[in-house]
Design brief:
Layout: H1 3-26, H2 31-54, H3 56-67, H4 76-101
Length: 105
């Protein structure tokens, strides 16, 4: 993973995690609930970026989704794009799950 892609992944992950933490601090929730939601969402966001690196089939799926069956990578960023897309998708998904799930009484 290139340094630029690592920086983008860090920005996306911190942004998603920051939104969740800011909302947790704003609401009057027990400390234990804040730790649970914050910790779980942080782990899931990090795993979203690491999952395609560890599991090659996920990386291949996103590579085929983005560029088609021909793997003609012209730029190093294109090689990192499946990792960034899967991390961004999982960050968005966990944020939506948090915002709806934490409000269910």
């Amino acid at each position: 993973m290139s340094l630029f892609s690592l920086l983008i992944a860090l920005i996306i992950g911190l942004f998603g995690f920051g939104i969740i933490i800011a909302d947790l601090e704003r609401r009057d929730l027990p400390h234990r609930t804040k730790l649970l939601w914050g910790g779980c969402s942080g782990l899931i966001i990090v795993s979203g970026f690491l999952f395609p690196v560890v599991h090659e089939s996920t990386y291949d799926f996103f590579m085929n989704f983005l560029y088609g069956p021909e793997e003609q990578v012209r730029h190093p960023i294109q090689q990192d794009m499946p990792i960034l897309v899967s991390g961004a998708v999982l960050t968005g998904t966990i944020s939506v799950i948090y915002f709806f799930g934490s409000r269910i009484q």
